[in-house]
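General statements about sequence and structure are easier to judge against a single worked case. For one protein, we set the task of working out the structure tokens from the amino acid sequence alone. This step matters because it turns folding into a mapping between discrete strings. The amino acid sequence and the backbone structure tokens for this protein are reproduced below.
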Amino acid sequence: MDTFTAIRTKRELREYEDRTIPQGVLMRILEAGRLAPSSKNSQPWHFIAIRDKTVLKALSQTTPTGAHLAQAPLAIAVLTENAKLPEVDGARAMQNMILAAWELGVASCWIANFDEAAVKKLLAAPEHLRLITVVPFGYPKEKKVKRRKIRKHLEEIVHFERFGQKNDPYAS
């Protein structure tokens, strides 16, 4: 799968098969995160791969939007340390992991709104680290997505040279 196809077809999926993610697939996903760009190449992230079902269930209870975390065979937490732009750097790493996983047939769904202190306690993460997210990963139960990906048209969101300019003066 090429990069654009991964971007075009990626869906947020919350139901996963009860199937283990092989070690090689996990390491490839983590490597994609490691290779992400960061502000001043600071690489401020720490990734915690979580497979323990008890911990996954406990993590699902630290957010109002992540019940599906309890059923996932894997989750990866991203925390940053001394980052100038923690959300940006952490999100870039996680997006790399999400797209690499999708290429390998592994689905995910970004979760926000965690009780950061509770997550850090569950994962024995140092207090000074900043939690960005915990994302579940798994092989999708739904093999073929039956719904269309709804996005605004480019004409609605693209401007050329300045806001409101809808025609590209450099287009031939």
User: Anything to note?
Assistant: The first helix runs from residue 3 to 9. The chain has one domain: 3-144. The mean pLDDT is 94.
